[in-house]
Amino acid sequence: MLIFLLCIALLILAYKFYSPFVERQAGINPNAKTPQQRFEDGVDYVEVHPVKAYLIQFLNVAGVGPIFGPILGALYGPIALVWIVLGNIIGGAVHDYFSGVLSIKEDGKSLPEIAGHYFNVYFKGVMLIFTAMLLFFVGVVFIMSPAGLLSNLDYFEGTILANNVFWVLVILGYYFLATLLPIDKIITKLYPLFGLLMIVMTTSIAVALLISAPQLPEMADIFAYFDHSHYNNDLLEPNPDGLPVWPLLFVTITCGAISGFHSTQAPIMARCLTNEKYVRPVYYGAMMSEGIVACVWATAGIAAFPGGYAELKSILDAGGPGLVVNQVATSYLGVAGGIMAIIAVAIFPITSGDTAFRSLRLTIIDAFKIPQSIRNRLLVALPILVIAYFMTKIDFSLIWRYFAFSNMLLSTSVLWLATKYLFDRGTFHWIVSLPAIVGTCVTVSYIMTAGIGFGLPQSLSQPVGIATGIVCLIGLIIAHNKRKPVTE
Known about the structure:
Pfam families: CstA (PF02554)
Strand content: under 5%
Subcellular location: Cell membrane
Transmembrane segments: 75-98, 119-144, 164-183, 190-211, 243-261, 282-309, 329-353, 374-392, 398-418, 430-454, 460-479
Distance between the termini: 48 Å
Number of helices: 19
Main location: membrane
Domain CstA N-terminal: 2-143, 159-314
Number of strands: 0
């Protein structure tokens, strides 16, 4: 519990002291006209109050990721908390902040357009493919997970509400409206309320954890995860199933630590902010908040089951993270609190899924310069949602693996894009370039060893990933030494 409280404190302190330093590198200009002020169109470029913008961004990026991911990451034990906090402070919050900066500086454009500006048309094409792929997978995941959770609730047993297809169609219908309608018709009205619900639910679980004083592992157990003699296995095998921390933990827990999906959401609020000074509280603040949510659920996953790893694993095998959420919420908050938490966890992924499809529409429209008429929005959105329906018939775990890899790959690409931005400005680029190198190592290691990749053994994939990172670091040092000072 001491580690849990320390993690929360570190996230808050990072916002207080580190984020202003990050902001100074970005070239924020409070006197500049924002995209909203220059391109007001009543559809996507709409004025939104910064507090509302924060709650919307928080809900856009939070979804089910910082709940399900940390629960799965709890299988690795307390080291999951360490990764969430370090990943968030060093990588995730900076990644989200510069996603917002780049978008608001580039007329609220989507990532592929920004990539084309700072690099070339080829990099733009690669970013377009992976951005569209990730947004689509996120949308599909956030149809399947809430539909599965809602249809499996005991309260609906024996009714049509227990039918998974029913919920899939209901959610798709809502996504259709949220994708087409102006942002101030649904999103700016409902999302602040749902964002507050997320905060209330997370706070309730956190307070319950403190009051209940659960049987958490001792602090020394963190170091046991790296103690060779403790497991009689490889150093990187932290549990009885031998799941390697590198790179699987970094891919399992993305939301809460670092997530490429967040960068795809940046243009939505970048088109609505009325001043560049709001980028830090909206983007950095939302990611810090998501880190707190992730810490709460990782701790709950570790603490809620006296049987430890074996009990958590058996529950995940039986019903996935949704069943864990159900049991944790009910045991800690009682029946009423459990219902509130379960409903909230069903709502949160839906509120990320709709903005995922909305961002996909914006990305396609930006890439192909399609006019923003209702007919064109309909022609883009309808085929996407029809294909998404048929994708819900595919195994969820397969979709999740592609989502996880795309997520890490895109976050790394955005960090390299931010590196180029700071390089051009002549400011301190290491705040993004070093996390980009780590992300490159993890991404290469994962695709080398994963079943959806090359399927190589860990003994080969890990050195290849690390070697790739070393090459990137050497190249970065050479480029840094050759860089000419830039004055503004």
